[in-house]
Amino acid sequence: MKVLKKAGTVVVSVLLWVVILVAALYAFTTMATRDNQNVADLFGYTPMAVQSDSMAPTFEKGDLILIKKCDTSTLKEGDIICFHTIINNEYALNTHRIQSIVEQGGARSYTTLGDNNNGIADTHVISDGDIVGKYVGKVQKLGTVMDFLSGSTGFLLVIVLPMLLFFIYQIYHLIMISIRLKKAIAVETAREQELERQKVAAGSQPQQDAEAAKAALEEARRLREEAEAIRAKAEEELARAKKENGEDKQA
Predict the structure, then answer these.
(1) Phi then psi for 224, rounded to 5 degrees?
(2) pLDDT tens digits, residue range 143-194?
(3) How far apart are CA 110 and CA 76, in angstroms?
(4) Nearest to 70 by CA among 137, 135, 139
(5) Domain 40-141 classified CATH 2.10.109.10?
């Protein structure tokens, strides 16, 4: 039973620490340094959740892709880049493949295309200043997880609630430790008191024996005195009786 209880405690602790690590990673990602266009920067990398299948099968909706900052002069046709653009009349980030590069007067412009867009290039031509970085890798389906965590429901269920349960568990754990500590102190105090009582009892025994011996001696002395008094009285009575008997004979 104790083994099962210990194993359960270990499992709970591991799960809670996993939640803490996930929460810490999420918080670190959320609070990462951002550029003037609100793009996260984690040591030169930008994690992004894919929102469409325009680049399938290279990466698909729900994947998490990593974008690395780069020198735009090193980019070439066929590279996949992340860039600022306008989608449905709103500023947004997009990640597509470079279809062509035009250089004019020292400035470069890029035409991009989604692998799954049937050969139809993007409407907006971008420049070096629009580019966030170059695509370097992906983690399948992790983008869905990050999107879920970014929402209020996911944040509450996966981050806040487990953290709350963790703190409740820690408080319970501290209370149980406090109770066990108090019991241990009480047992130790009782043991020390018993040892002290035995020590006192052992120390007072010789004194009690001496007092008992003294009382017995005094009692013996009193009995002897009483016996001597009785004998002296008996001798006196005997002498008186002899004297009276002698006077009667003379008469």
Answers:
(1) -65, -40
(2) 998 888 778 888 788 778 877 887 888 899 899 999 999 999 998 888 888 8
(3) 10
(4) 135
(5) yes
